[in-house]
Amino acid sequence: MSYHSFNPKNKAASNISQSKGSVKKAFSDWLIENYGNDYLLEIKKQRARKEAQHLKQNIAGSSTEKSAQTPTVGIIGGGFAGLYSGLILQSLGIEFEVFESSDRVGGRIDTWYSTNYNANDKNASGLYGEVGGMRVPQFSEDMLPVQHLTLSLNAVLKRNKLNDKLVNWRKFYYNSNVQRLRYNNMKEAITAEDASTNSLNFGIDKGGDLPMVWVTEVTSKAGEVYLPINKVLDKVNERFLAAIDRSFAEGFELLMQYDNYSMWAYLTNVFTLGDLGEYYNSEMGERTDLLPYNVASYLETLNAGTGMYGVSFVEMVIAVYDWGGSKNPYDKKDENIYMITVDKGMQHFPDACRTVLDLEEGVLPTDGYSAQMEIGMIPGLNGKKGYSPSNLTKDAQPPASVPHADAPKPIEGKPSAKKQRVYMNHKVVAVQHDPHLFDNHGGMKISVEKKDKTTGKIESIEKQYPYVISTLPNGAYLNGALKTNFFDNLSFSKARAIRQSNYMPAFKAFLTFKTQFWAKLGNRQGKGLGVAATDRPNRQVVYPSYGYEANGGVLQIYSWAQDAERMGALTDEERVNECLKGIAYLYPEVDVYEAFAGYNPEVTTKTWFWDNHVGGGAFALFSPGQFKNLYPTLLTPEFNGCLNIAGECCSVHHGWIVGALDSAYNAVNNILQQAGATDKIKQMQKTWGTLTSPDIAARQNKLAEAMA
């Protein structure tokens, strides 16, 4: 999932050094190094207690020794953090159970399929859209673990003759030169190729509020033609990106000086006109003047959405690296954006996870090790990194400048017996720590409500585990149960972090049209158009990256923050009406209402605002100060290490699948470290790689020396 709109004028991401793909991991490490003393001290205390390794045999023993053992880990939530936690544990031979309150897995990865959808009918195979996450940067070093997971799953599925469950990636068309933009009552929409020096009616001579000096073409000495206002974000990010390129420590130190600022506060209280450097013009004001409100408003409108700049300045700058990672790292001259999506819908991805988790044997070390080589997480057998995963459709194949990976094939092996570990319609309503469980190692008691889909009756189930990994969005810890809290007796810092972590609302809608007028007018038949943008509440129109051979198709509307809240306050049909008006605004030459297939929920339309399983926001997006004050706290295990909180909130990759994977990896690593399961840690690293886990041995040793 991602919240950034396409803006052809903002080139900040394209200026990033393409060798900095691991900046998010470095940022996570740096935060713990500089603001994680409480985290490190608590981790050390938990592992030092005499009962810490009481369950070592349960975790470190062989799978044959534990074939009939009671599950050691209870996992709450069947989103990607819960699924990935389970897949790692399964690969290590550690038993667990996953409880999901709904009737599907995936959490905020959720595909809407029209009831008319038919994968085998060309006119119905494109009738779907992504309610949640819809794309993955193809070459981002930080995000390669997402593709690694699909390859690892596919190895297991092939071994078990479950080829219909395989996860394949197809191209996601993120942008194009013919995607449309229209703002401020412009007489007509324009295309992206004509937008770089267009004022979009923001200038005062067009009825806007910007002095013309900001939106009047300038030609540099080098011959570059630009609008000064479109250079602001480049200059805002430039000093921080340059510092990070020189040294992670230097760059993060500089960046965190402004951690208490929102993006809006930085723009209007720190950045001066003089900071524009060569783009400054005296007609803007004095060099010491701050950036005008109206300029900040323009930048928020075009680059995010109403209210989005209220989030952390650090969050916004660091997010730039996610987009820089969308480019080809093997060819620095390649300016294209490369993104991919799961063929036939992202929902196939978590469904494949569940299928594998419900097998006796899952991902093998050879599966994961080979997959790491296939995508360039580690060098191949020839000692060089390459990228040639076996699960790309033809349109998603990498450009010729990308070297082929030299990776061994996973072993074929034998099919596995089934073993249920994922329990659907099982809602966890309470989790309590009991220090006396498991011979005083301590453990967690959880209360589960099992709902019968046929009768609707609720059955109460009580479970006990030495360890629990809870992966729910923070808002979902309000369970709504009578007299019973989800958690009791959490530490003050953890309870505060769960309560305060900022989540961003999002809105999506899917509207079916009888004809694909956008493809014909865009002259991109057979290819995706990217994303259209406007200042109307619907904000973005995401064109499909598939289904162009059909007569009709689905347009997706996507907005965030205040825009999403206002759309979400309407009734379902009113939301659709607003979306139709936004599409008609972008296509005034088309009778959009005639082309519309009609309001018919789940057949021709679907709207989504938040979600009852999410609990108040679509994805984490920190407010000022929360990286240094809440991030280490969210990572700290509770109750002597018996409870770990995971989910994309507990990562630096907010709004992306890999954030959930990182947090799950860290939670499992905490359990292994406490048990002293050194061999299992090595096996995990060989199978899954080394994700953004802040629990670094070198730092632990450093802390131990300091405490000695």
Automatic annotation (TrEMBL):
It catalyses: L-tryptophan + O2 = indole-3-acetamide + CO2 + H2O. Belongs to the tryptophan 2-monooxygenase family. Residues 80-185, 417-672 form the Amine oxidase domain. Gene3D superfamilies: 1.10.10.1620, 3.90.660.10, FAD/NAD(P)-binding domain. Residues 386-418 are annotated as: Disordered. SUPFAM superfamilies: FAD-linked reductases, C-terminal domain, FAD/NAD(P)-binding domain. Its EC number is 1.13.12.3. This is Tryptophan 2-monooxygenase. Pathway: Plant hormone metabolism; auxin biosynthesis. It comes from Pseudofulvibacter geojedonensis. It is an enzyme of class 1 (oxidoreductase). Keywords: Auxin biosynthesis.
